[in-house]
What does this fold into?
Amino acid sequence: MMIEIEKLMYREKPDMMLVYGDTNSTLAGAVTAAKHHVPIVHVEAGLRSFNRQMPEEINRVITDHLSTLLFCPTDEAVRLLKKEGITNGVYQTGDIMYDAVLYYKDDAAKSDVLALQKLNAGKYYLATVHRAENTDDPKRLAAILDAFETLDAPVLFPLHPRTRKKIDSIGLRSCEQRKNMIAIHPLSYFDLLQAAASAKGILTDSGGLQKEAFMLKVPCVTLREETEWKETVTAKWNTLVTPDSQTKISEAVSRLQKPAKHPSLYGEGNAAEQMVQHMKSWTQHG
It folds into this structure.
């Protein structure tokens, strides 16, 4: 990735390198830009799970320490950067994913994903599982699938290709052979947004989906020991569970309920506008 990004930088000569999130491409863009002395803008800066076993955590930390402008989704992210000595160029803008949820929610509502699967709103769970610590551990993967079979409503389960491959290679019963589970191919953004908005609850190890669950006011069980979105747990819309036992998972899901309060955690839906203004200001004044 870095070789190809470098070619692009030589050709385009960018004024800034904007990178998003915590993927390997985020880190590749940031490191390449830093070597060429191109200012880096990091969207979704300041997140920390404090689990250095996660590749994403390494990517976040390095990218933040290389960046010139750091756009944080929450006050907590600003605070964590300050603890690491990063204060210049740090802005709390709200979360750009919330912008997207608000902007596309009505379009997503036109999706026929529920009709195709013969599901009714509020009468099913949406589940996603893709993290290596869950898919590569036979005990955990079995516990997760076994728990899904015990729940009080069907589980709509868009299967990540590597998850399906691991189920087959480990020798577990396929999702199609299990009761209570509707295994389908990965969904488009609109279909996933509609499936999430209409679910009784969301069960996931995804960072983005647990946050979208909060934005859509759907309670969530996160199949991980920790999360970079701690505020969703504090607000009681998100429950962490170590997915090494079918009983643990089933009990966590059985306790799901919508809290009475839904605090504003991720801004007002104008994060992108703020980011653009900060970038314009920096290019004009430094």
Q: What stands out?
A: The chain has a mean pLDDT of 96. Residues 102-254 form a domain with the Rossmann fold fold (CATH 3.40.50.2000). The longest strand covers residues 17-20. The two ends are 29 Å apart (CA to CA).
